[in-house]
Amino acid sequence: MIRDVSREREIDEVKSALISTVSHELRTPLTLIHGFAELLVLRDMPVERQRSSAVEILDASRRLARLIDDLLSVSRMESGRLVLDPRPLDLASVVERILSPFRAMAAKHTLRTKLPGSLPVVWGDPDKVEQILTNLVGNAIKYSPGGGEVLVTVDQDGDTVQVSVRDQGIGMSPRDMGQLFEKFYRVDREEVRRTGGTGLGLYITKRLVEMHGGRLWAESWPGVGSVFRFTLPTTSDELAGSGR
Amino acid sequence: MKLLIADDEPAVRALVHVTLEGDDYEILEAADGVEALEVARGEAPRLVLLDIMMPRLDGLEVCRQLKADPDTSDIVVVMLTAQAQERDRDQGLAAGADDYFTKPFSPLALLNMVERVRHNQSGAD
Asked: Is the complex ipTM higher than 0.85?
């Protein structure tokens, strides 16, 4: 039997690159937890400083937890263990539902929707469609630190529905756009670093859209803003009575 | 003593700030490699704490350029990085770094190192 050694070697290389990236990504929040905790334990500090150090520890812990969640999602996706549970969905109500926590938190942003009077029923996994939308709206807010409008539009396009999330944020260069959906890719900018993302969100989002048979893509203008668009298939099935 | 912390993570810069808080240090900051070189050349700090993976120009290259220029070659350069493997350490030292801290690091160990530099004008030891 002939074994494909080059293929095995390739897999090994991908694996070791992943482990090296992950350990780097884990070390940064760990540095902050270790560092600020050590200062709290060994140093006399004014109460205000103690508080801000504890906030740094909390932020870094959340970042670690997010990174682990995202890594597990990626691993489930790539091994085919993540399975959709699709059903007929009323997309308009999903959009409204995911927007309300953002509306409560985002002081500098106006969140608007543009939904047609009647939309066809969409075929999707409710949790995953929420995750897709939450991720895109979250990014739109995160990457428009100056505030502005975030507009979610839903349109019918043949036998699919197209959703777009538009912001008035920092935008991206063509170079960033090329690598946007790659694992661990993060735009090399101070504003982006400060948000403490894992570099996995868009990769996961794109995979989730594709598992639904849809497409996700983006357009962007540096300094003007970005639009992320995705499609979902429609269905002729009726909506279940509840959940509207 | 003037000291520059170059790291693209604002929270790591904040950690160094809190660690070295007091009257003994004037702390300058840079968020990427190009900025680090500019500040190091313009402000002539005694010590630079240098992250390796930074936008625009990585820390190893910043170190090489500082050490190659007679105007800046006396600046003590300490790499502060998440690259934890032996090979990475060797690369840092080959680039001319005087010392090497791996993340996560102990702030008090960092403080001790910085104090040594402050008390010993001749170098890292």
From this structure: yes
